[in-house]
Design brief:
With 190 residues, this protein is of the alpha+beta class. The chain contains four helices and six strands, in the order E-E-H-H-E-H-E-E-E-H. The protein has one domain. It has a four-stranded antiparallel sheet with strand order 3-4-5-6. Strands 1-2 form a two-stranded antiparallel sheet. It is an enzyme of class 4 (lyase). InterPro entries: Holocyt_c/c1_synthase. Its EC number is 4.4.1.17.
Length: 190
């Protein structure tokens, strides 16, 4: 797998960061394009699934976003990132169940983007009611046999477990985006 960084990308700090990548359970449609989501380096040639970034790639992505990552934290952060995305995908598959994608091999993740500064309408409303804001937001586009369906994911810090105070806890609010299709899907769940 090519791990070469294009010119201008920051190099990691003195700690040797891992370059191994994990194959996700999240299927990816075969697509052509120029952005990173369509880059074949992000798709496993055998399974067709998305491939998660290595510690080094994750570190460099955080640097590009002007965050201040610590190399020694990547060994912990990357597996958490991957596990949280797997959980989000599991919830999306629950939303997609019985909606027709079974005939073409199930839903596939077309693209994703994150914007921790942009609150969803629901998150904004919950903040007005006094609840904590999510620490991140993702927008995912899913292919349902050629039909694109948009989802939004709000990521919250969960309640700590008193039996395991050192364990991290997350709550994900995964739902279809407010669109005609998304509203219809939400109404059917009530």
């Amino acid at each position: 797998m090519d791990q070469t960084l294009p010119a201008g990308h920051p190099k990691p700090s003195n700690r040797k960061l891992g370059v191994d990548r994990e194959i996700s359970t999240i299927p990816r449609p075969n697509m052509e394009g120029s952005n990173s989501e369509h880059d074949p380096r992000y798709q496993d040639p055998k399974s067709g699934n998305w491939i998660y970034p290595s510690e080094e790639m994750f570190f460099n992505a955080m640097k590009r976003k002007d965050w201040d990552p610590k190399a020694e934290d990547m060994r912990t952060i990357v597996p958490i990132h991957n596990a949280v995305n797997e959980r989000a995908w599991k919830e999306i598959k629950e939303w997609e169940a019985g909606r027709g994608s079974e005939k073409c091999g199930g839903p596939k993740l077309v693209s994703f983007s994150g914007d921790s500064q942009k609150l969803t309408p629901k998150a904004r409303f919950m903040v007005l009611l006094g609840y904590q804001a999510p620490f991140d937001r993702h927008d995912w586009t899913v292919d349902r046999c050629g039909k694109k369906v948009d989802y939004v994911i709000d990521f919250y810090s969960g309640k700590p477990d008193p039996r395991r105070p050192e364990a991290l806890s997350f709550y994900l609010d995964v739902r279809p985006k407010l669109s005609p299709e998304g509203v219809w899907m939400r109404m059917q769940r009530w």
